[in-house]
Structure formats: C-alpha cells, structure tokens
Amino acid sequence: MKTNTGYLLALSLCLSPTTTLARPEHQMPPGAPNAPPQKAEQEKEQASDIASITADRGIVTQPGRFIIEPAFSHAHSTSTLVAVEGYTVIPALLVGLINISEVQRDIFVGAVSLKYGFTSRLEASFRVPYLSIHEDLREREAFQGTPVDTLRESSGSGVGDIEASIRYQLNDGLDGWPYVIGSLRLKAPTGDSPYDVEQKTVRDSQGNPIGVELSERPTGSGFWSVEPGLSLIYPSDPAVLYGNLSYVYTLKDDKGFENGKTIDPGNVIRFGFGMGFAFNERTSFSLGYDQSIIQKTRYERDIDLFAANFDRIQIGSLSFGLSQRLTPSTSLSVTINVGVTENAPDSEITLKLPISF
Asked: Is 54 within 8 Å of 18 (Cβ atoms)?
C-alpha cells in the first residue's frame, strides 16, 4: 500500500481529545455593576453546559473537584488513490497503465481523562488513549495490467500518545467580556510510530520506489509536541458563542538514515468557532466548525519517496453536539463530526461520560 508517512505524522499530531468540564463556583464581587449574582451564575452554567460538548472549551474545573472522563470515538474515512505509468500522445489520449486503489479506514479510540481544579482559575488534566485501527485496501497489482482486484487488510492497536495539559482562566467574564482561557498541552510519543513498525518500499514495474507499505497501522506520531492555545466563551442569552486558536509545535527528531535522518514534522495551526444553546436545565446543543492547517514534513536527507507532497494539508469538519445532564455530578454527551475537506475523516462520533467527585 502507498502511504504518505509525513501526512500520517502530522494528522496524528493534530488530533485532539474531546472533554467535558465542570462548572466553576465563582461569585460576583461586591458592588459589581453587572447582572445580579444569580443571573451571573446562570450564565456560567449555560456557558459550561454548552461548551462541554466541544473540545477543551469549557470554563475550568471547580477548585478541589476531581473529574474522571471515559470517552469512546469511532472515525471512518474512505479515499481513492490513482497512479499512472505512461505517456500522452495528445492531451486527451493516454498510453500506459492506470492503477486505482480504494482505501477504507476505521479508527476506534477509547480514552480516559483525569482532571483536577487547583484554584477557581487553574486546572490540570491527563489523558491516556488506546487505539484500534483497521484498514482495507482494494486494488489491482500495481502497473501489471491485471483485471483482477485484490483485497488486503491491515490493522494495529495499542496505547496512543499520552497527553498532559493545564488551562488557566484569565478573567471572570464580567462587564460584558467573554471568558478568556489559555491552555498548554504536551503530547508524548508513547504510541508506536510509523518508524517503529516494519516498513516495505513499494516499487513499480521498473523498480522505481513509489511509496512505503507498513506491516501494521501505527498508533502514535513518534514525536514530542507542544500546543499553546487560547479559547473564548461569550454567553449571549439564550445562546453561547465560542472560538479557539492554537498552534501545535512538533520537535524534530532523528529517525535513522533510511527514513531521511532528522525529520521535522509539519507544525499545525488549529482554529474553530461555533455556537450553542440550552433547551432546558439538562439538555444542551452545539454547532461548530474546526479547521487544521498541517504544514509539510521536512527531511534532512532528501528522499524522493515523498518529494511530491503539498506544502500544506487542510483538514476541516463540521461538528454537532448534544449533552444531557444525568445527575448533578454526571453528564452524557455525543458529538458528530462530518469532514468537509478531502483529507478529513468522512465521519466521526464521540461519546463522553464525565463523572465529578
């Protein structure tokens, strides 16, 4: 199978967890020229309930509150690859062989997140994911002109890249200001990367390398990454508006001469925005859009296997979320993401069940 290793690295690095956050217990300062304390608390609850459906966009966890959040997600994608070996006689006539392959990929992720609120403005979290990846490839033998399709399967499972993060609420959201929250996430290369599994070079009929085939699907990126970010939450009764911006900086690493020596994975610019509203005290709905711009992976040793890559990859998706508060300390949320760009997963569904203590 022909696989773009640089794209896999960048895609793995840009993946982020979805989390549900508790409501803070801030109190209005005496003499504040804003809404009454009861109304301010209602706005904060509304902001937390609606933003809890999205990824790390809720107000920080209450001080002394501990949250365990099990989550499960399934992403499905289908792509078609076309390779041509031949020449053109006239622009409308091609002489040669055309190889078309279809890839279907399913990624199942089970994760457990732990959160703790140290103060009314500061929280820390830790996330451990476990991935199971299954991939089917339907193709004809490359450039051989055979009329027979073949179906190959490839899979992989294991612990993914573990993450640790801190979030700090910069203001109280008073006097008509939105809640402003800064974050910093660190991702460690604990999963099996594309360079940890066995690789095989795929060649055409002339012996020229045309790609790399992996014996099993990697579950991690193989690189350390740091992601600073900023989120805004603005209650505007009866809706809540939100937005976020972050930058994923990936540390380069030496992966051996055969892999291009020192590899510098493309950094990622991520942003998103949306709105939501509460149907009642227990049920909330959210609608948003997320975009990731993945820059090109660069190799110290110029290898021709991946020389025809784009300078950047765009991954965009629409998200629809629904959250139901089951008890005062437990809620259930479901989020559906629909890919709107070619490189994004066609669909992804995520279930979360945060339990606070």
From this structure: yes
